[in-house]
Amino acid sequence: MNRARTALYSAFEAVLVVAIGIAIPLVPLTLLWGFHFQLGIDWPVFWRGAVDIWLLGHGVDVTLLLDPALAAATGIPGAERPIPITIALLGFALLTVLLGTRAGRRIAETSHRLTGEAVAIGTFAVLALAATSSALDPSARPSLWQGVLLPTLCFALGVLVGSTRARLLNPADDHGSSLRDWIDDWRPVTRETVRAALRAGTAAAAAVVTVSAIAVAVLVLLGYAQVIALYEQLHADVLGGITLTAAQLALLPDLVIWAAAWFVGPGFAIGTGSSVSPLGTDLGPLPAVPVLGALPTDDGSFAFAGVLVPVVAGFVAGALFTRALREHSPWARVVAGTGTGIVGGVLLGLLAWAAAGSAGPGRLVDVGPDPLLVGAWAALEIALAALAGAFAAGRGHRPDAGERPRRRETQAAATDRADAHRPDAHGTDRGSDSDDAVPPEDTTPPGHGVLWR
């Protein structure tokens, strides 16, 4: 595939990702425009709404300005002022990363990988700029620079992950890189320590998120009756129910991260003054989101045991990924265990930052976990557990345990070889009885051979 075709193909991949992301909210909003509002409202209003939802899904701040009559009808203090919406509906960001990974994997199969990646990311940035510019309106105004930067970063992350994975699965197409060559020049102990810390920290954070996803699924199943009751109280029609369900699916990754913050310890808030943590639950009035009905309202007797999740994850990750360091100094395991906590804390803190922010006026300006607390607590818990796991995995291991027997064996073999080649009393080398040895010359007088037999 030549360079021009690669560029065209990569641009099409970027267009496809943007189109899918915006179409998810646009399709139900267009159906509402046609069936519920009977085409009585200009369609660009729904287009701007879909773009705003897509941008919110990537963490872009959107400032709302309610109509004075509507603000007064809500009865919420501060509703008449501009309302910043800063919380992200991370389902859209996750979709962009996954679609970007697919695009990166397909671009890596072309003969001009770097050109394809650059064109795809550049095209996505141009489309994000166009979409954000089209959604600018006094009633809902997204941040222009965030609208270009944040969705493009999500897509670029997916493209790089997909391209790197494709090259790792097909080493024949990997012609090396200066970064890899620079890493290969590190000392072996440094390279193995950094690799262990990165892998263990990422694995520990992934384990906490996985357990959190399972916990959210269980809570939704157990609280299914309450969720349905909240749906019925909203009196939404079919299209309204579909739109509301799609919005909750976009919010689902946020709920998983909130659960991870709960397991770490600091918990999360749904409104100023509220708190949901292992130490206790204090919920005030909740927004009309049916999935929030699955939140437990009572304090479990053993809720504090949830803090064991990051501890166990850090211990197992430290034990599994630091085995290669047993041959090195114990300080290598100390550095790897500490690095594991730092990596895991940074990852969970960044996730908490993405899942927190303002969701509306009044109490809703404070929703989600505190990213600094989550990151700090996660780093401490995972680091201590990873250190314990690293030293538990290396306990009883002696770097020279296998060398001493081999050294004794080598010395014994050398002694045997020396004895084998030492001349005996007749001056004959005792090691000369091999097949290649030359037999000694027979000095027996003729005719006397029978006597020797």
From TrEMBL:
Keywords noted in UniProt: Membrane, Transmembrane, Transmembrane helix
Membrane-crossing segments per the record: 12-35, 83-102, 114-132, 196-222, 234-252, 300-322, 334-356, 376-394
Entry protein name: Uncharacterized protein
Ranges of Basic and acidic residues composition bias in the record: 397-433
Native source organism of the sequence: Diaminobutyricimonas aerilata
Claim: Lipid metabolism is one of the keywords in the record: no
Residues covered by region (Disordered): 395-453
